[in-house]
Specification:
The protein is built from two helices and five strands. It is α+β, with helices and mostly antiparallel strands and 113 residues long.
């Protein structure tokens, strides 16, 4: 599988991902992917009008395009990772609270014994 990273290069303020797009290509070989990407970027030639139509330009022309040959795709268990991180934070917080409570208990025992 091939992916292409298309970048307009002008970016935007306060928006993540503004000015770029990632597209998936159907091509089976690197050469086919380059040809497919070229067609997607500049569009298809119309012989009657002597111009290209339906190319990806967004609001302005692209500054860069990078083709990636993706041989292994893994969907990461993001929800599980967040859950584990929250659990670890909660465990650490509880541990600190427990230690503070034990110190307080020792302090009170010394005071009243």
């Amino acid at each position: 599988m091939f992916l292409a990273y298309l970048n307009q290069g002008q970016g935007c303020d306060y928006t993540i991902g503004c000015g770029f797009k990632i597209i998936q290509l159907e091509a089976g070989t690197h050469e086919e992917a380059l040809k497919e990407l070229q067609e997607k970027i500049v569009g298809q030639w119309n012989e009657d009008d002597k111009r290209f139509y339906e190319g990806y330009t967004g609001e302005s022309a692209l500054e860069t395009a990078t083709l990636y040959d993706v041989s292994n795709i893994t969907c990461v268990p993001i929800e599980k990772w967040y859950k584990e991180a929250r659990e670890q934070e909660e465990y650490a917080k509880n541990k600190v609270n427990e230690q503070n409570e034990k110190k307080e208990l020792q302090r009170l025992k010394k005071k009243y014994e």
